[in-house]
Amino acid sequence: MTDLTELSLAQARDGLRGKKFSAVELTDAYVAAMAAARLLNSYITETPDRARDMARASDGRIASGQAGALEGIPLGIKDLFCTKDVLSTAGSHILDGFKPAYESTVTANLWREGAVMLGKLNLDEFAMGSSNETSYYGPVVSPWRRTGDTAKLVPGGSSGGSSSAVAARLCLAATGTDTGGSIRQPAAFTGIVGLKPTYGRCSRWGIVAFASSLDQAGPLARDVRDAAILLGVMAGHDPKDSTSVDRPVPNYEAALTGNIKGMRIGIPAEYRVDGMPQGIEAMWGRGAKWLREAGAEIVEISLPHTRYALPAYYIVAPAEASSNLARYDGMRYGLRVAGKDLIDTYEKSRSAGFGAEVKRRILIGTYVLSAGYYDAYYLRAQRVRTLIANDFRAAFEKVDAILTPATPSPAFAIGERNDDPIGMFLNDVFTVPANLAGLPGISVPAGLSDDGLPLGLQLIGKAFDEETVLRVAGVLEEAAAFTARPDSWWRS
């Protein structure tokens, strides 16, 4: 039998329905792959017994003709999603031992359609990071290495456990969250597809909050079709989430027609940044050429306030984080460090429970929200956010989608940028604008850097027009014909 972990989600779905193999066999193949790849540190918690129980139940439903859309499909879940009775940590010491009594809406949707949970995937602490080095449970390692170099590389962040696991074939696909690029950037770094839907398309209920006006769940998968299938189940209105939008969920897989003739694709001048490697600039040009050859018209556009997106984001996001993380005080759940009185207990619990990056962002957020600085920083950043959204609104009067690079560089080595927080923030320079505007975006692998590492192209679409984004992404994926794979140096 073909190695089951090499099948795409769509292929595995069809194989299960055709009874070419069982859900238990498929799950066992992934459990074995996970056990042989612990060097990557992709998972915080593995749940093999639960996975096999879920797989057996799936085999029963398949046999009785009651298969759901994801019946028997083994997935990894970013450990920002609360999963009932399973450790849910957000990558932080302060949530040690926390096992929720409830299920996030997104994961409940997945289990309702028959998906199988392999475990909880590692991430930057509270999703704050661009390299998956801030997790209390240690950094995640990318399965990729530079040509001729054995240095361990970052898989991107914050959904680095998700991207590493999908790229290394440790799950068929994974959930992620994207606040400033945390799905698209790690997908680009590891040669897979990462889709951030429109804000409000997927429920945030049961997802540990970072920045509530920016966070959005989405899929990381091996190809565009798999991402479309997974999004179709993850998405939907949820009355428990006031930011969830009550709109029908389209058949995203059916949108992959391959026909983009007559579409207009925008190329924003402002995404040509100083210091961007020539290889990324060249790949961007090739992407535009591929879409033109497929029948699209390439249009030069301007997004004039793009330069202000990153500073605005790093005011808005920490401000919201400082508010959201105030609930972690050692009193109700997770870590508690006893002090001499209530305030001392708060201080000791938070000091021991939060890592350096989380503390940095809480301090920044508290500062910009403080009396005397709220108007000067936070309100001004929100006004800039409106200008950025208006730029996109004007652009989409002329074009159907926008093509940009996904990242300003390929993956870097673990520890290489730890002393440069500003440089780390710049990893999100191409992804943050879509979050500030609440728009859908996808990263598609499109080539390799000079040292053999994946590079991604990003497509940004109109609000709630994931169908167009996926259709264009499918054409881009076919033209790029990206088949490179990391070697298996990590397997024990």
Structure description:
The structure is a single chain. By secondary structure, the chain is an alpha/beta fold. 36% of the residues lie in helices and 12% in strands. The protein has 15 helices and 11 strands. Strands 1-3-2-4-6-5-10-11-9-7-8 form an 11-stranded mixed beta sheet, with helices on both faces. The protein starts with 8 loop residues before the first helix and ends in a 12-residue tail after the last helix. It has one domain: Amidase signature (AS) domain (Amidase signature (AS) enzymes), CATH 3.90.1300.10.
Q: Any chance you could write out the topology, listing elements then pairs?
A:
Elements (H helix, E strand, L loop, with lengths): L8 H9 L5 H13 L7 E4 L1 H16 L10 E5 L26 H8 L3 E6 L38 H8 L5 E5 L6 H7 L2 E4 L20 E5 L2 H11 L29 E5 L9 H16 L3 E5 L7 H16 L17 H12 L2 H14 L4 H22 L5 E5 L15 H5 L6 H6 L3 E8 L5 E8 L4 H15 L12
Parallel strand pairs: 2-3, 2-4, 7-8, 7-9
Antiparallel strand pairs: 1-3, 4-6, 5-6, 5-10, 9-11, 10-11
Instruction: Look at the structure and give the CATH class.
Output: Alpha Beta
Mean pLDDT: 95
Q: How much beta, percentage-wise? A: 5-15%
Which CATH-level-2 architecture? Alpha-Beta Complex
Our Rg estimate from Cα atoms comes to 21 Å
Side by side, the strands of the main sheet go 1-3-2-4-6-5-10-11-9-7-8
Name the overall outline.
globular
The helix content is 25-40%
Count of strand segments: 11
The first-to-last residue Cα distance is 22 Å
Would you tell me which CATH topology applies?
Amidase signature (AS) enzymes
- The succession of helices and strands, N to C, reads HHEHEHEHEHEEHEHEHHHHEHHEEH
Structural class: alpha/beta
Multimeric organization: single chain
Query: What is the number of independent domains?
Result: 1
Q: Figure out the total of helices.
A: 15
Low-confidence stretches: none
